[in-house]
Input
Amino acid sequence: MAEWIALERLAVLPRPGRIVGEAAQGAVDHPAFRHQVLRWQQAFARAPGSDWALYFDDTLDFAAALLGAWHAGKRVFLGGDNLPATLDGLGPRVAGFAGDVPAHYAPLQPDPHAAVDAVLQPLDLDQRELVVFTSGSTGAPSAIVKRMRQLTAEVDALQAAFGEQLEGAQVHGTVSHQHIYGLLFRVLWPLAAGRAIQPRRFFHEDLVGALAEQPSVLVATPAHLKRLPEQLDWSSLQGQLRAVFSSGGPLPEEAALQARALLGVAPTEVFGSSETGGIAWRRWSADQPQWHPLPGVAWRIDEGCLAVSSPHLEDRGWWQTQDRAEADAGHSFRLLGRADRIVKIEERRVSLDALEQQLRAHPDVQDARVLVLPGAREQLAAVVVPRAVDVAGWEDAQRRQHAQALGAHLASSHDAVTRPRRWRFVDALPLNAQGKITFAALAALFRPLFPVVQWQHREADAAVLLLPLGPDLIAFDGHFPQAKILPGVVQLDWAIHYARDVFAMPPRFERMDALKFQHVARPGDCLQLTLGWDAATSVLTFRYVSDHGVHASGRVVFGDA
Output
């Protein structure tokens, strides 16, 4: 087994022959990595202030800077990205920045003349600190302080739970080391265990070849595992992949089973948070496995929510989470969803409250609600009440323009993943009989009123279009409780609606003639609607057909106002 290095002694003594990672110029051994740590240590030692922020794209560069800052006695702040709002938010908290940030932030550079044989003392587990940020239950960004003792305990727990199967494996990842999950799995744990680190994040196109070269570990998220391209030659892995880890959000059963089939390894999910550290794990070798606590973690259910106690916390008291849970057989549990308004989109924590507050701060917004729309890929959606009047009269171009403006308003603090992707503009938020705004009422605003049509023929007096009937059309709701059937009144309304798109018709409806409904239309049917317009008599004719035959037909007479 490879020599285990305690985190506080990672760079103290050079260890010839030990490979730390792979860089563009080749393998980086421990003495070369230690020299890079010393370059950063001496640069940070001369730098003023005790608090410094790091952001690096390259994982090995990040690891050296992190240890260098710690050995210089600095407290390290990690932003999750290098967006302007993130860096500007960190600015008042820190003395400066190091890494891949714009030049006007004057990032610190490593000392090019650092002595190779300089002495490094073991780090103090209680004095060295890392600060990460998470949304917290209030929606405001909260600083989470992690002492090195907590990080050491978590790395030891991961090694005790999974280390034996990973001997000699190289660590690849699709996650950033700027977040606590990536920091532990791609930096601290591999450094302590002697597993070589790949310095960059991989994407699907080049991931297969990298994993197939030698025994490997993949550190991923549900967002990446849900999108594994089936056309890639996963069979070329030939048993080289030792383990697949997933964290940051729940891995759907379908994605877990597909990942197991493609990769040849059952994914191991690790559950936890920035506040609690790692809590439990489960492996998808069976359908819907239960969660098992990591070594050293105690848990209980308090008022329906999970509470934990572990050395990963700042103290050994009980931490009450907002994760609803129930005890399972033995010493395991199952999770039942969140109890607050912090949600995860593509494994990114998002505060719905914070998004709403920022939208309301826009001068053109009177009120707003943000929700998560369920589906194969969950999406953030926003319902906005603009200060303008008569929203119902807006053209589609006006709605797109306002959505783009509000998206740009959010872009300084939220990247594309954590901004709403769907928008609705209304004159007032929907209220139920009790005067409350419900999720169901908000979600209904995003359900389609009309099918996505395909026009086949359009002329001044005739048109043909296809109407695929998706199951989520509002038209199927409630009319026939025993089955989803497209009501006749909807078919008549659609005929008039689409006719007005192509024909110059008088505004006033007078009467219907020869109206017939012959076959029911259900979800999954594709209706062909044929429209005809006789301007001399102001008569609209319509006819719906599908593979099942004729569904409906009739004539509608119009008159001038």
